[in-house]
Amino acid sequence: MVKIAPSLLAADFTRLAEEVLKVEQGGADLLHLDIMDGHFVPNLTFGAPVVAALRQVSKLPFDVHLMITNPQDHINAFIKAGADLITVHAETHPHLHRLLQTIKDQGVRAGIALNPSTPLVTIEEVLPYVDMVLLMSVNPGFGGQQFISTVLDKIRRLRQMITERNLPVVIEVDGGINAETAPAVIAAGATILVAGSAVYGAVDAAQAIASLKGLD
């Protein structure tokens, strides 16, 4: 049941197409695309044109994570570029129902993300309207950060909320995921793991992905 979503943020940006194909052939389940605006988070990455270009070379589902202010202004561009799932941060918008419905009305799955310090109660009312909840286990904006261990309890509590309501919502965790932290994250209830340097920094991407799934 565990799926691995390599984060392109950790790839070699001088040869992105090759880097995408490497993880696709290595057994990745999704491709995680971190979109940063230098405002909501202190970094810039890439936009919809890069996503559209990569869509031409990959069949992987594109897991587009919008770490941006005013996500409503950019959702259509990323859907047009080929996103299969768009995740927005609860911290960025006061009208989450409307935002999520905008995504789902266009036939794309919708996710909601929470920073480590944002409580679960923030998304309690919109939980029935999402396909996925992304819990950040680092403060977003940079790759290679250390896993925040207190997020494990947050994963367990979210899993309980989902189970009690019998909702078809999956939990994704992003930040500091590696062979050491993955087992605890999976045990807590997550089913999608975002991994950057643990995959792209490995000698063998396929072996790294299998290890994160616990299949090695």
Automatic annotation (TrEMBL):
EC numbers, comma separated: 5.1.3.1
SUPFAM superfamilies referenced in this protein's UniProt entry, alphabetically: Ribulose-phoshate binding barrel
Residues noted as binding a divalent metal cation in the record, renumbered to the chain: H32, D34, H65, D174
Cofactor annotation remark: Binds 1 divalent metal cation per subunit.
Source organism, top-level taxon: Bacteria
Keyword Cell wall biogenesis/degradation: no
Example of a GO MF term: metal ion binding
Enzyme class per UniProt: isomerase
Catalytic reactions of this protein: D-ribulose 5-phosphate = D-xylulose 5-phosphate
Catalytic residues identified in the record: D34 (proton acceptor), D174 (proton donor)
Xref: PANTHER family: RIBULOSE-5-PHOSPHATE-3-EPIMERASE
Family statement drawn from the similarity comment of this UniProt entry: Belongs to the ribulose-phosphate 3-epimerase family.
Record's protein name: Ribulose-phosphate 3-epimerase
Organism: Thermosinus carboxydivorans Nor1
Lineage, top ranks: Bacteria, Bacillati, Bacillota, Negativicutes, Selenomonadales
